[in-house]
Write a structure and sequence with these properties.
Structural class: alpha+beta
Strand order of the largest sheet: 3-4-5
Number of helices: 2
Distance between the termini: 119 Å
Order of helices and strands: HEEHEEE
Helix content: 40-55%
Oligomer: single chain
Strand content: 15-25%
Length: 117
């Protein structure tokens, strides 16, 4: 009887081994089927084009006028005249023969909108 029990346990072990091998194969098939090809990563975002640093200088009658400085003076003058108003747009008209610049802020212009340099 011992031999028949050994045969049963050996047969049971063999059956378990077959089941385990079969389940491992199924698991392997499932995992490979579940894996999808990696999604393409979007191309690296293009770096924003950086504007070059620029300076505009007007030379007239032996004088030099830096446009950026005149623009900043116009912004300050507008802020003093119209306190609490935000500048959305500004246009600057430099008249070197008058040693002055006139500006239009937010589509509004008047004689007070003048900067002397």
């Amino acid at each position: 009887m011992v031999k028949s029990e050994e045969k049963k346990t050996t047969a049971a072990k063999a059956a378990d081994t077959k089941k385990t091998a079969a389940s491992e194969k199924k698991t392997a098939v499932k995992t490979t089927a579940a894996k999808k090809p990696a999604a393409r990563k979007p191309a690296a975002a293009k770096k924003a084009v950086q504007e070059p640093e620029a300076t505009v200088t007007i030379q007239y009658a032996g004088r030099q006028i830096v446009a950026k400085e005149v623009l900043e003076a116009a912004k300050k003058a507008y802020a003093q005249l119209r306190q609490g108003s935000e500048i959305k747009t500004i246009e600057l008209y430099i008249k070197p023969e008058e040693n002055a610049a006139y500006y239009v802020a937010n589509g509004e212009g008047c004689d007070e909108f003048k900067v002397e340099f």
